[in-house]
Design brief:
heterodimer, A: 445 residues, mainly alpha, 3 domains, two-stranded antiparallel sheet, 76% helix, B: 91 residues, alpha+beta, Glutaredoxin, four-stranded mixed beta sheet, 3 helices
Chain lengths: 445, 91
């Protein structure tokens, strides 16, 4: 192969990676990812853990402890650091094996970041199925595990030492829950595709004249002016956050306020509609609603929270962004490249139709490929574009966050081999069935 | 002597908390050069339960769990250190 053909080959490879990356960063994805990161940080810093853990103690009744474990998985387990200690605690000193397993399952599966991103990048049907089925499975798998190992569990329950770890009472703070609901509303309003929100109620024409060269460049990357501006915002936010949030626990500075303002501005810029090559901005219901909600959030945060609390919140948000975002960018880029290489015929032959076999392959792929949080979503998007059926796709998305070789090893260390094997088999079988039934359900519609 | 333990599996927040504990210890040393503060890291998940810790990071001062699931400021940790010192002297 000559040097120039090598370059051409590399170009063929990198170009799809780059365009898919730009497409992701410019599009509606920001409307879901920005609020999702802010919410994840909020849950981590502000949701009082005692509000949930007091229902997970050793004396809790079954019909309280299982739903509480599922809710806890959603509310408390944003970070994998929190999952394992809580899981071990619930199992050994708290409500027992069943609720602990429910918590372990629901945590990574109903992660707010992953669900929001799935909804924006793949579709609300898959996102909803992910939430409903994960919670249902979490409960079922927990109950089955508790039943399978009931003899051992009874023996152990007799020896449980009371520690008081589950007795904590949460202080009642309505402001926390009001703010939480407002933040969730920003996410929902940003992603929901309904007429009231997507319709442009009136239009504004930007008083600008764009140079022809700029227009041609935008055309080449298939970007709208709005998309290009949004991509431009990202380095600005990154810079402001680096300078303003890295030490926010010690002090607020001008950059701290700048990064908050830039993040809010990004949401407002992403909300209106704009066509490619046009200067007309459609003022959508989404834009109006987002503006009102942001104002509400500002007011509640300023009045109901101390500066130290807001600092903790901002730090958690920044921590998640630092942990997840770089990997996500690499993931989107690589998935874009892979899409150009993997022959469509292969994917269609293996998982193009909704069969049990195809669903099982989706699950096994999730087990043997380890993707960091959120990266499973662009990978799934790639398979969808290559012709994978939505049934096996769901099976893959259900199994991937639960069953990586790494997480199996870690749970194995806490639970022991027999329980881990049962858990893994249950998750694999149920995910396969879920994908199959979901695919059949879609076909029946 | 005051013993401080930072409980965490080694995530970013645990490192942050440890840094804050070190700063708090420096503050205390400036006021009371005669008191020694020892900071240990505990990353064995099984030990967390002995302190009743459910959400990391946790901070233990003289074997008492003073905070869990959050990162207290260096000033607040310094206050806890002073309290622990007062309690030790009263005993």
């Amino acid at each position: 192969m000559s040097f120039s053909s090598l370059l051409a080959f590399l170009g063929d490879l990198l170009w799809p990676g780059l365009t898919s990356l730009l497409d992701y960063l410019a599009a509606h994805v920001l409307l879901c990812l920005v609020p999702a990161f802010v919410i994840a940080g909020f849950m981590s810093a502000m949701i009082p853990k005692e509000a949930i853990t007091r229902y997970l103690g050793h004396k809790a009744r079954k019909w309280i402890s299982y739903p509480a474990a599922a809710a806890g998985g959603f509310l408390l387990a944003v970070c994998s650091c929190t999952i394992l200690p809580l899981f071990a605690g619930i199992w050994k000193r708290g409500a027992g094996l069943g609720p602990a397993i429910t918590f372990l399952f629901v945590g990574p599966a109903v992660n707010i970041l992953a669900i929001a991103y799935t909804g924006a990048a793949i579709g609300m049907d898959i996102a909803l199925a992910r939430i409903v089925l994960s919670i249902l499975f979490g409960l079922v798998i927990g109950l089955v595990m508790a039943w399978l190992f009931r003899a051992e569990e009874e023996e152990r329950a007799a020896q449980v030492v009371e520690l008081g770890a589950f007795d904590g009472q949460a202080k009642r703070r309505p402001a926390v829950w009001v703010l939480f609901l407002l933040l969730i509303a920003v996410l929902v309003v940003g992603t929901l595709q309904v007429g009231v929100l997507t319709r442009a109620w009136f239009e504004l024409r930007l008083p600008l004249r764009l140079p022809a060269g700029l227009l041609a460049t935008l055309e080449r990357f298939q970007l709208t002016l709005q998309g290009a501006l949004l991509i431009g915002m990202l380095p600005l936010i990154a810079l402001a956050a680096r300078l303003g949030l890295e030490h926010v626990l010690e002090r607020f500075n001008a950059w701290t306020y700048a990064s908050i303002a830039l993040a809010a501005l990004t949401l407002l810029m992403a909300a209106p509609s704009m066509a490619q090559g046009s200067l007309v901005v459609g003022v959508t219901g989404r834009l109006i609603a987002e503006a009102l909600l942001l104002a509400g959030i500002g007011a509640v945060a300023a009045r109901g929270f101390t500066r130290a609390e807001v600092a903790e919140w901002l730090w958690e948000v920044w921590k998640f962004v630092k942990q997840i975002f770089p990997l996500l960018i690499v993931g989107v880029f690589v998935a874009g490249m892979a899409k150009a290489i993997i022959p469509q015929a292969w994917v269609q032959a293996v998982a193009g139709r909704n069969t049990l076999w195809a669903n099982l392959i989706g699950v096994l792929f999730g087990v043997f490929m380890y993707f960091p949080t959120l990266v499973e979503v662009p990978i799934a998007r790639m398979f969808l574009d290559l012709g994978m059926h939505r049934g096996p796709l769901l099976a893959y998305l259900l199994a991937d966050p639960e069953l990586s070789l790494q997480s199996i090893l870690v749970t194995g260390r806490i639970l022991g081999r027999r329980k881990t094997v049962s858990y893994v088999v249950l998750v694999a079988v149920l995910s396969t069935l879920a994908g199959y039934l979901f695919g059949a359900f879609l076909a029946g519609l | 002597m005051i013993t401080v333990k930072v409980l965490g599996p080694g995530c970013m927040n645990c490192e942050r908390l440890e840094a804050h504990a070190v700063r708090a210890a420096q503050q205390l040393r400036a006021e009371r050069p005669d008191v020694e503060v020892e900071i240990q890291k505990v990353s064995d998940t099984a030990k967390f339960l002995d302190y009743g810790l459910l959400t990391t990071p946790g901070l233990v001062i003289n074997e008492n769990l003073v905070s869990s699931g959050r990162i207290p400021s260096p000033e607040q940790i310094a206050d806890w250190l002073r309290e622990a010192l007062g309690a030790a002297q009263a005993a």
